[in-house]
Amino acid sequence: MAEKQSFIDRSEKVESIVAHIMFCLQCRQYTLKEKCPRCMSVTHDPKPAKYSPEDRYGKYRRMAKMEKINES
Question: Where are the domains of the chain?
Answer without folding.
Answer: 17-48
